[in-house]
Amino acid sequence: MLTPSGFAKQEEIVAKEERKNGNGKSQLKGKEYMKELRKLQKELCHLQEWVKAQGLQVIVVFEGRDAAGKGGTIKAITERVSPRVFRLVALPAPSDREKSQMYIQRYMPHFPAAGEIVIFDRSWYNRAGVEYVMGFCSKEQHQRFLQLCPMVERYIVDGGIQLIKFWLEVRKEEQARRFEARIEDPLRQWKLSPMDIESWTRWYDYSRARDLMLEATDTKYAPWYIVRSDDKRRARLNCISHLLSLIPYKKLPRGKVKLPKRSNKGRYDDQATLKGRRFVPEKY
Q1: Angle in degrees, 0-180, between the axes of helices 30-54 and 70-78, rounded to the nearest 10
Q2: Is 133 helix (H, G, I), strand (E, B) or coil?
Q3: What is the pLDDT of residues 85-143, one digit of tens each?
Q4: Contact 108, 159 (CB under 8 A)
């Protein structure tokens, strides 16, 4: 449990986040952000019903630098919709068996069926980024991936899946601020892995890897959309708004729902039977 000084530290971190960012705009205030987010989340619910009704298949890929805000953006998209329609996929490091497979093979079982939107929190583009920069694949494997990826994505799109790719771009100074916040904030320290620390030192290696990836895989049928994410709140709103614009949908009519009367058949004191059971202490 956080001490009063711990809460004060958190409040200080939050206050810092609300200061001006690198593009000169003030950080979006909480009330304004929540108001706009709720509007967009309502539209995501309408989109959800349309996707189910039309049997659409959609993949949304999220890539970007460490601490670019991918997780927060994905949470903003998914927190008010059904996880059976908006499915989140965040795969761990590949097993030895998976390493021996065709590279994209471990991702394909997670592809959408009719009426599903699958969100990949990092994807097959690991090979273009972290695997290449950190030496987990050879230069030949990296080059082969960049050559074959557009062809594979062409097959995905031709197979009836809409493929949407977002790259979240954060400035070097803002990434540094977020890393420092992770070091200080006990609620964020789990986000800071040894791999993150090692990656931290290779900013321009990642920049070059990003440039190579965009050059090879930014196609008309599966384009990249870059989201500036120095202001996380604005980035989330901009990303959701653009996502909604990419999938044509209509608001479907919903029949009025009226709760029927509950039956009193077999009525008894159903609270009395809980007496003596183990209840969670009500500390709050």
Answers
A1: 60
A2: helix
A3: 999 999 999 999 999 999 999 999 999 999 999 999 999 999 999 999 999 999 999 99
A4: no
Distance between CA atoms of residues 198 and 33, nearest Å: 34
* Strand-pair partners of 116: 57
Distance CA 77, CA 83 (A): 11
Longest dimension (CA), the chain: 72
Pairing of strands 57-64, 162-169: parallel
Count of other CB atoms within 10 angstroms of residue 145: 23
Report the CATH number of the 25-173+203-248 domain.
Answer: 3.40.50.300
Q: Which one-letter amino acid corresponds to residue 34?
A: M
Helix (H) or strand (E) run with residue 225 in it? strand 224-228
**Is the full-model pTM beyond 0.85?**
yes
What letter represents residue 281's amino acid? Answer: P
- Amino acid identity at 191: K
CA distance 267 to 281: 29
Candidates 184, 125, 131; CA nearest to 152 is 125
